Amino acid sequence: MYDFKFRSVGGFQRNCTTEIIHVTKQKFIILKFADTYKSVQKAQRTSARSAIRHTALNNISRLFLKLNESRKLVETKRIQFLYIHHIFQDEEVPLQQLIEKLSKNHHFISYSDAVRKMEAGVIDKPYLCISSDDGFKNNLRAAEILRAYGISACFFICPAIIGEEDPDKISEFCRTRLNFPAVEFLNWVDVEQLQKLGHEIGGHTMNHVNIASTIPEHLPFEIGECYRQLQHHCGTSPHFAFPYGRFFHFNDIGKQEVFQAGFHTISSAERGCHISDSNQRINTRELMIRRDHIVLTWPWQHIEYFIAKNAKNASINSNYFPSYAGSDHNR
Ligand SMILES: [Zn+2]
Q1: pTM value > 0.70
Q2: Ligand 1 midpoint to CA 256 (Å)
Q3: Which of 99, 203, 219, 318 is the most buried (most CB within 10 A)?
């Protein structure tokens, strides 16, 4: 049955990269971490929904790309942010293929460089910036691949789950916060490694909370403590991305808290891209970064559709907070 080299009563012993065993006097709990995206999809039982979405996107993207000159569109001077959550074993080659495709007509820049360009109002080329949310352990692999291509990304993490080894807590966090099967998280040594590989670390609240539905009294902890933890472990961490990412997951109180905590930028997960207007500078207090979520195994046609559509719809208005957030920038 169980090999008692995994003794250590009440503790943890790693078995392999995808499995840890939590041993107590009463019970054995074996937590299988997902190691392929295929297994995640199987666990989520999303195949029927995914198939419908896939077919719909196939048709929409084919029509859009037929009616529009996507090659010209993606040459628009703009900053396109793309973000992922994970890179399982079966996503490593797709990441490399995606980088090679995007490199043909984009210049990759770091998150902070992208922000500096927006602040200066000088977006003079088609730029692309990569980030990743939630801090899964497999982000280390993304960091290595990106590094091999000379790309600096930003990894948004939740300090409360960093280094967590309790399988029950990992499982609950993934289920309740991420709607995802259990996946191992980075620890602080891994986070340091990300920085050594030339990447940036950003805040994503302590516990991956929906800011709009969190009572204001908890925000100083969820946002302020997140900033302090990142300062302590990473030195500097100016960027913040709010969990779940739609505008309705955020609010004006959250915005105030983010800047008061010390973060310099706020990012959503609303699709879109950023352009500049006659070298007009953008105040980062009014900037709401838009990022497009992608899954690395999506067909290229779908990703091309999203970024070409963003380029077509590019607008100065997309640089700013929506009106709910109390911006006096009435655009
Ligand atoms: Zn997230």
Answers
A1: yes
A2: 20
A3: 203
